[in-house]
Amino acid sequence: MSNLETLPAWQALWERREAIAETSISGLFAADPDRFERCSLELDGLLLDTSKQPVDDTTREALLALAQAREVAQQRDAMLAGEPINTSEGRAVLHTALRVPPEGAGWAGRAVADEVRHTRERMIELATAIRAGQRTGATGKPIRHVINIGIGGSDLGPRLVLEALAPDADGPAVHFVANVDGVELARALAECDPEATLVVVVSKSFGTVETMTNAHEVMAWLRRSVPADDVLERQMLAVTANLERVGELGLDPALALPMWDWVGGRYSLWSAVGFSIMLGIGPTAFGELLAGAHGMDRHFAEAPLEANMPVWLGLLSVLNGTLLGRRSQAVVPYTERLGHLSAYLQQLVMESNGKSVDAEGQPTHLPTAGVIWGQTGTPGQHAFFQALHQGTDVVPVDFIGVARPVAGERGDPLELTANLFAQSQALMQGRQGEHLSVARLCPGNRPSNTLLLELLTPYTLGALIALYEHRTFVEAAIWGINAFDQFGVELGKVLAVDLKPALAGAADTDALDGSTAGLISRYRAWRG
Questions:
Q1: Shared-domain flag, residues 378 and 461
Q2: Active-site residue among 184, 210, 288, 351?
Q3: Average pLDDT score over residue span 201-229
């Protein structure tokens, strides 16, 4: 695949970049009263409004030409067909197969579909027994608490979903432990009855240092606290690809749920990694979550490029981040239920597309993924919105709102939604006037997208998450990078293993750089 900057379609955009940056978004509305209708897409209770972007008809056609030149549709079809598009690791990428209805043949064929269906049936059977009190702890107490131990994709996805769907939760309380510093673990253990707690350990290798450190701490807690020899076999469940390691630690391999190498961690909440989700909200709601994601998958697969939600989100991200140099993006949900969305998207986007070489191992000469960050509104309005409105950097924003609040929840939905719509309006229009002091002026013409959900349900949440997954894929397709490896994650972890002996005083620091050696020396002195 040729470098992006050599493509005529990219060069056409590059030649217009200054004109695009200076395009008046308010002027586009003045010239086209129907702009909102032409720049909005709707699918199954999810509305995407991209009208507040600096995209006129010429830019729109140039972006579509870029998608065609980069063969976005062909790359999408190769992923869905199960071709090994993760070329650096020789793997297929089949998270979409996890969402196919049980009766479907699957995107990648019957064999994968049967494997997914079998695992889903096991999850449903086990979750139903635990939620009904038929499968108890080692002393006969029903399970009332679940501790999910994982990190990265084994934590962020389930954590996001269970917070977002808390009103639907009718099962055991789920606690999440990811950090190895011990704080999350101490908080979780303090809230749990050890005889009524199931521990779900999620690790593909069953050797992830952070996860296994926390797992060993919980194992010791269970042994100390539960008067039963089989407590680990009864109250610890592994989600992993390494069954041999499960048995070595005294857990029941027959109880383990599988992970597959064709599902990356940040795309895995739809798999057995989401077992804690199923325990919390039940198999039916989990099935609706999958159905929402599958609905977005079908839209991505079948809608023409010009009417395809993920395609437009991806193209606009490349337009702002790569063409116009706007190197960060804020994600601002106007509901506390989506408080973990920005953290989830940080991993999804930055771990997938934070690359400086293309899929063929050649350096990329244009910027790839920028920084994803954010907070819920309205608190964010009293934190970082000042910089959004008057700062020197133009930061594109994805605003996310929910039209109908959950029944019984307090709060003023009109106040919340008025703030949501007002902020995107203010970013676009700015504030000008001869009567205003310079300090009060806001330049405006700052881009945003608005995603409006009719209601936050398992279905619409599944569609929303899948939308961002596919947006990330489109970005990678345009940049020509592999979104599905993450070798940069490994380096610091490897070095940490080498540094532990020096920190403990069992190895010298002569071969280390001066900064690391100095930090270790001060750490050891302060630790005594």
A1: yes
A2: 351
A3: 95
